[in-house]
Amino acid sequence: MLATFFTTVIAKDDIFSPAEISMQVEEKRKTDKYYLCSKTIMCGSLLTEGNHLYLDRESPLWKEAMKMMFEKISYWQEQNKATTINLRDFDSEDAEMDSFFTENGFFKMEMPENNVIEKLNWETQEEFLLNINSRSRRHIRQEVLKCENIVTVEIPDVVTEKELKYFYELYLNVKERNLGLNTFTLPYKVFENMVKSDNWEMVVLKLKPEFDHTGEQNPISVVFCYKGKETYNPMIIGLDYTCPREHNAYRQSIYRVILRAKTLGMKKVRLGFSASIEKRKFGARVFTPCAYLQLKDNYNMELLGTMSALRMVKKG
User: Fold this and answer.
1) φ, ψ at 125 (rounded to 5°)
2) What is the pTM of this model?
3) What would the pLDDT profile of 59-112 be if each residue is shown by its tens digit?
4) How many helical (H) and strand (E) elements, i.e. helices and strands, does the chain have?
5) In the chain, where does DSSP find H-type helix?
């Protein structure tokens, strides 16, 4: 009737806050690493996205099953001395679920926009282009397809330690610039485990020798992708920001990930949070999920709320 999983983490309370707020908070964290952070019981994990909860709502007992889950979470909360419960990635337009969570002491928080390509029902490049609107089609032709012949794509079976360290540096390049979903930096050990797992693969882009003026043939991007049963999940991207902008490394990466998903026979591609304008050009549907939180101490959230209000006043 119900199945899910939880992770106990130290999470940044501004994880879903606007990037401008997280920039202010990160200044404080230079001297106080865990400023505005809370020990959290989270549905899913900080690496996963999408609906983590299987719930048979056809059953007349689904609410009782949810209440049993709440009781278990409360027990874990006491055992782990956690101050926050975060149940995330729910449909923000589900009025019945919204009412149920509210009645049980949770408050709703909007999450960043998420992006998913729901159908890969094309066979050729032209058919793919016909699936997107004319404006996006023009952008793809001008910004992606004109550059597709200057890069090579690799899906490495074996990754050396030197290569993995370089991939990690590319990840750090992006992590340090992206506060749209503010989390702690993933440890190197996570990437070591990914390359050992058959469920993960890397889509690596390099410039062809005649276009690589460095002469080093280093990757310009790497995307760590999780292979589900029917869904392809590009989870982590790393980029070389010294690569000339006209090569469009980021857009090339999105395009190549979609092609890889099609090659594997996947039915859907989850493109994740942030950069919705770019992802929409490739036919992604944009939606805004929500999270339901329960706090033992409201101080951190109230402080973030005050910061957001001051930001709006300054903008106004």
Assistant:
1) -60, -40
2) 0.90
3) 999 999 999 999 999 999 999 999 999 999 999 999 999 999 999 999 999 998
4) 10, 14
5) 19-29, 62-80, 95-103, 125-130, 134-143, 161-175, 188-196, 249-263, 276-280, 299-315
